[in-house]
Amino acid sequence: MREYLETLYEGYGQRFSVDQLLHEVRTEHQHLVIFENARMGRVMALDGVIQTTEADEFIYHEMLTHVPILAHGAAKRVLIIGGGDGGMLREVSKHASVEHITMVEIDGTVVDMCKEFLPRHSNGAFDDARLNLVIDDGMRFVATTQDKFDVIISDSTDPIGPGEVLFSENFYQACHRCLNPGGVLVTQNGTPFMQLDTVRNTAGRMNGLFADWHFYQAAVPTYIGGSMTFAWGATDPALRRVSLETLRQRFAASGIATRYYNPEIHLGAFALPQYVLQAIGKPGND
Ligand code: SAM
């Protein structure tokens, strides 16, 4: 394999030179490739879609963890759905205030191969004593568990294949059931310039279910097509309105060094462009 062509979109996509193929396998659930690219470092793809690269993963993982956890302010129990590469787990585990992390990943081979070939993603977090790693379908887990969580992070593939169910109404309803009072669900929700239906559908499913729902965004270079949106479904509207001063205090107290996240980026990320607001049926960013 000399180059890797992403096949997420018809007629448009990104190409990586494959400087060294590190691993390729068809797992029980998906086709997995991990390769070395001189510019982006080690890259993992599933079913033809780029999942993560060493070069830019920090943006995505910092924004899907520190925004909900610092907005919540007292998160003790965190659930990660998906996240097999371990990057989300690494960032969640940096929060000393978090006492328990459950991670539900459908494909154990992704975990094993990323531990071996993308070790800097998890950076030892799979050995964290707070972790309960469950290899199962995230939909089945949230539909059946009696556990409750303060923050739920859906770090899934795109809404195709095994990830499709993680964008369903049943999934959002089940996550809502699994949240403690004051809890919040955040999810990977695609790049609206290319996947506007994904935000439109999620908005329709969150509206009327969560006391406060919106999206926030960050540009992740290898999630092509512009900024990626993250869905926000909170049981308490106050969480999205935490003051800059409070976020600054919480961020400083966490002692976490970041490369992308800061409190100003946190608040600014919730300001969505007009075409996205129109797609989700909101007149403004309130
Ligand atoms: N950052 C990537 C993105 O934005 O597309 C996601 C990365 S992470 C590798 C996605 C993970 O979701 C994969 O490990 C995949 O196996 C997992 N996954 C897909 N469907 C799932 C399901 N129904 N339940 C649990 N995990 C699932």
Automatic annotation (TrEMBL):
One of its GO terms (molecular function) is spermidine synthase activity. Spermidine binds at H61, D85, D155, S156, T157, D158. Its EC number is 2.5.1.16. Residues 3-235 form the PABS domain. The active site is at D155. Pathway: Amine and polyamine biosynthesis; spermidine biosynthesis; spermidine from putrescine: step 1/1. This is Polyamine aminopropyltransferase. It comes from Pseudomonas knackmussii (strain DSM 6978 / CCUG 54928 / LMG 23759 / B13).
